[in-house]
Amino acid sequence: MSVVAPLAASSREPQKPRRLPKPIRNALVLMVRGDEDGRVIDFIAAAKRCGVAPDVMRRWLDRGEARQFLRNERQAWRAAICAANEIALRKIRDGENAMASVRAVQVLEQLDTEQRHAGAFAPVAGFCIVIGDKVWTPPSPPQKPTIDVTPAPAETSIERPPR
User: Fold this and answer.
1) Gyration radius from the chain CA atoms
2) Are 44 and 61 in contact, with CB atoms under 8 Å apart?
3) Residue whose C-alpha is closest to residue 66's, from 7, 121, 120, 25
4) pLDDT at 66
5) What is the chain's percent helix, strand, coil content, to nearest 5?
6) Are 106 and 114 in contact (CB under 8 A)?
7) What angle do CA 38, 39, 42 make, to 5 degrees?
8) Do 30 and 44 meet the contact criterion of CB atoms below 8 Å apart?
9) Residue 103: partners with Cβ closer than 8 Å, 6 or more residues away
10) Segment 8-30, tens digit of pLDDT
11) Integer Cα distance of 33 and 48 in angstroms
12) Model pLDDT for residues 133-149, shown as the tens digit of each residue
């Protein structure tokens, strides 16, 4: 009778994500924020500026930790450049253009509403209890009548002229 040993889990610990090297981090920051003049820099130019070979930079962009850093950096950059939106809208509101003033007021009020209800519609974990066997479906919009646009057959009556 053969005895089969039980399967064992791997003794190796899962690897922690590697820290991004400083030149890679600097290149990613350049890609998000641009250069000193605010011009867009692609990953090849950013890599060359930071002393990284383009193929090495491309390999780092395929890694999860580099993508996560890039996402976080973009989110921080958006927050930084949007920090003064209210001041810019106030200048527009107080300006001479009445249409722009009205729209600036609307946007300012909308920003306040969005901030208050930021988490109101966020998805949450849980389950739904259904009582009964009927599932509610939203009513369908009324259907417009179909219009038939095919032309009627032409009447063909051929009269022969007299001989």
Assistant:
1) 33
2) no
3) 25
4) 92
5) 45, 0, 55
6) no
7) 130
8) no
9) 92
10) 656 667 667 678 899 999 999 99
11) 16
12) 776 677 777 788 888 88
